[in-house]
């Protein structure tokens, strides 16, 4: 018997986590010295209130959770005789997984018969959410951890995500994006196009002037790389801007048809601390990232 975990950096909410059977690890962010744990310090995420803080000048920071916190999450299930499968955001993006590794090593000394499996989604936010949901479907269907690991080896790199941000100061502050010049933030209307690569890092691969051209770029990526997209969720996420969502959905359905399995998601506050308000992205099943 095993249980499944994910974390709030994957955009998973408690309501959806309950649907699939996930246990949810809260990844914190800090504003003005106050640290907040999503769905621990609040019950429901209010994207407008959070992103309005950022528009008003707040510049958040994120941090790793401790070794002891991981033990508190995992040990009760090991003690019950259950193995754990954790589907998490990109290991390449945070030192938190070093703490996790130490916690699991300690737990394995006390519970040597227990197994701990991981699926690295090599992403954050939308792409992680898409993979988390696919794994959740397999868990509900009774698939074993070994089945899921075999699937992940082939499929994780076939979920692509492309997105753009309105204000580059948040990416500049976090330092999470390679190939992104901070000076681009001074160019009026320029939006970098960013994707998650196969190493699980955010990489800037181009730029567009204006939202319309940026949206067109995202849809063109779906047309170019999409693979069996109607057999998998197409996730669209934004950081508190319904107008951008509507524009992307309109363009996507105009060019690819009205029968697309589109789902919408709010970019979680920890990921949003890096990308800022009015970020827009799309995740889809692809021939490659």
Features:
Rossmann fold, seven-stranded mixed beta sheet, 39% helix, alpha/beta, 10 helices, Hypothetical Protein Tm841, Chain: A,domain 3, single chain, 289 residues, 2 domains, four-stranded parallel beta sheet
Provide an overview of this structure.
It is a single chain. With 289 residues, the protein is of the alpha/beta class. The chain has two domains: 2-38 and 64-155, Rossmann fold (3-Layer(aba) Sandwich); 157-285, Hypothetical Protein Tm841, Chain: A,domain 3 (2-Layer Sandwich), CATH 3.30.1180. 39% of the residues lie in helices and 24% in strands. The model has no long low-confidence stretch (mean pLDDT 93).
Draw up the topology in text.
Blueprint lengths: L1 E6 L6 H7 L1 E4 L3 E3 L2 E3 L10 H9 L5 E2 L4 H13 L3 E6 L7 H15 L5 E5 L5 H15 L4 H11 L3 E6 L4 H6 L2 E2 L11 E7 L5 E8 L1 H15 L8 E5 L3 H15 L5 E5 L2 H7 L4 E6 L4
Parallel strand pairs: 1-2, 1-6, 6-7, 9-11, 12-13
Antiparallel strand pairs: 3-4, 3-5, 8-10, 8-14, 10-11, 12-14
């Amino acid at each position: 018997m095993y249980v499944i975990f994910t974390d709030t950096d994957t955009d998973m909410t408690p309501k959806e986590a309950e649907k699939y059977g996930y246990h949810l690890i809260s990844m914190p962010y800090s504003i003005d010295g106050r640290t907040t744990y999503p769905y621990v310090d609040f019950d429901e995420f209010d994207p407008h209130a959070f992103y309005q803080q950022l528009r008003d000048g707040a510049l958040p920071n994120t941090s790793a959770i401790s070794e002891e916190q991981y033990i508190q999450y995992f040990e009760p299930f090991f003690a019950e005789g259950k193995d754990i499968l954790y589907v998490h955001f990109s290991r390449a993006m945070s030192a938190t997984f070093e703490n996790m590794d130490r916690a699991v090593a300690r737990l394995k000394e006390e519970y040597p018969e227990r197994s701990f499996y991981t699926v690295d989604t090599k992403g954050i936010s939308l792409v992680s959410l898409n993979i988390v949901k696919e794994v959740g479907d397999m868990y509900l269907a009774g698939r074993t951890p070994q089945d899921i690991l075999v699937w992940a080896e082939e499929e994780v790199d076939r979920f692509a995500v492309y997105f753009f941000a309105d204000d580059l100061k948040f990416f500049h502050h976090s330092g999470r994006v390679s190939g992104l010049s901070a000076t681009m933030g001074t160019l009026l209307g320029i939006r970098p196009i960013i994707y998650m690569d196969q190493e699980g890092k955010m990489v800037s691969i181009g730029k567009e002037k204006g939202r319309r051209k940026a949206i067109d770029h995202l849809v063109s990526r779906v047309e170019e790389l999409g693979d069996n997209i109607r057999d998998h969720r197409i996730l669209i996420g934004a950081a508190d801007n319904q107008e951008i969502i509507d524009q992307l959905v309109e363009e996507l359905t105009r060019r690819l048809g009205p029968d697309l399995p589109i789902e919408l998601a709010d970019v979680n506050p920890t990921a949003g601390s890096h990308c800022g308000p009015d970020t827009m992205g799309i995740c889809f099943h692809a021939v490659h990232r």
